[in-house]
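Closing statement on the arginine sub-project.
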Amino acid sequence: MADDTTDTKSSNQMWGGRFASGPDAIMEEINASIGFDKKLFAQDIRGSIAHATMLAHQGIISTDDKDKIVHGLNTILSEIESGNFEFSRQLEDIHMNVEARLATLIGPAAGRLHTARSRNDQVALDFRLWVKEELQKTEQMLTNLIAAFLDRAEEHAESVMPGFTHLQTAQPVTFGHHCMAYVEMFGRDRSRVRHAIEHLDESPIGAAALAGTGYPIDRHMTAKALGFREPTRNSIDTVSDRDFAIEFLSIAAIAGMHLSRLAEEIVIWSTPQFGFVRLSDAFSTGSSIMPQKKNPDAAELVRAKTGRINGSLVALLTIMKGLPLAYSKDMQEDKEQVFDAAESLELAIAAMTGMVRDMTVNTARMKAAAGSGYSTATDLADWLVREAGLPFRDAHHVTGRAVALAESKGCDLAELPLSDLQAIHPDITDKVYGVLTVEASVASRKSFGGTAPSEVRRQIAFWRARN
Ligand code: ARG
């Protein structure tokens, strides 16, 4: 809260020239970002070293000053890494904390580092570097998750389970095929990550405050030194743009949605009623009151993390939507959203990878469920089309009558005696029993991308070659 002492505070070291007194305490609190942007220290120092090196190369600062600056920055890097750096909220953000410390370490030469740049292009640079590294990490984590699914799919290419629509038993599928559905989803997430890396691979430094600079800088040199493909092409856009952060959040939101659907399936599958999978102790907890319980907490938390990630995406879109070009301080609020979403996404992918690798699959339960609910009714209809020449619509009707009869007798389709089936349609022969088992049903679905074990193995081979 504001109090009288604020007036006696010294004005800000960096921009305080025209201010008579220090900022009000509330102002300091709302203005400071050091609490979260200190995460960018390594990127900030790397960016400054590249900038100073370029300034010296272009003859804008002396080599002697550049050497002092680079040495000082490296000292600060090790101070921060070893926890021996005192961050100050009065110095607002990571950029000014580093620069102030540099001045203490090397004296007046420190004042030359900020030539031909502004905090606007500096923060755009630091944040882009951070998001790029996070995307690279995400790409690797998705690769590990895909690998976990490929192993499970291979192991269960022939294991039958019920396939669902509307969460009602639809047609039998294999567990391997179901696993490969997730491989497709996470494969798309990974290609979105790769595209995002391509989009953001342009260096902002040198756009300066918004208009570029009169100093003879070389933006191609700094871009190259920092591992970017090329410099950005418009200085106004450069300091206004946070698309790279929003793209990261949208990718995280879509991947989060996929992870959450998987989490929901694991929650359902691990209930005693389904009993399709059993989570390892490592990814579940017990109840403090009900000794029999094993709760899928990790899956539930993955499902919940998705809510946070979506919140971050909506927050940043909303922060940005009304901003005139170029930089506005609103944009400082970008970082916490991205940092929080990145942490949630990393945790969610890691937890899912562990769960998928560790869970025990109960193939007997899956097989029993696969045959219930008249899941091979479509196979009967298809047989009537193929073998008895019925139009599919008529076959559908005949099959419906067979299902109703089986239901009234409390048995499966395959358990209906031939005489019953022939009473419904005279052309039915005992050959029909060959298509009424779940194994036969699954094996028959050899269409490209279908659930037949041979097709699932083809899909696995495709992804193994790409993972
Ligand atoms: N801490 C600021 C941010 O994160 C740095 C840029 C400040 N620029 C400015 N002109 N005040 O956005």
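The pocket of arginine is lined by residues 33, 37, 93, 119-120, 123, 327, 329, 331-332 (CB under 6 Å). With this model delivered, the sub-project is considered complete and its resources will be redirected to Aim 3.
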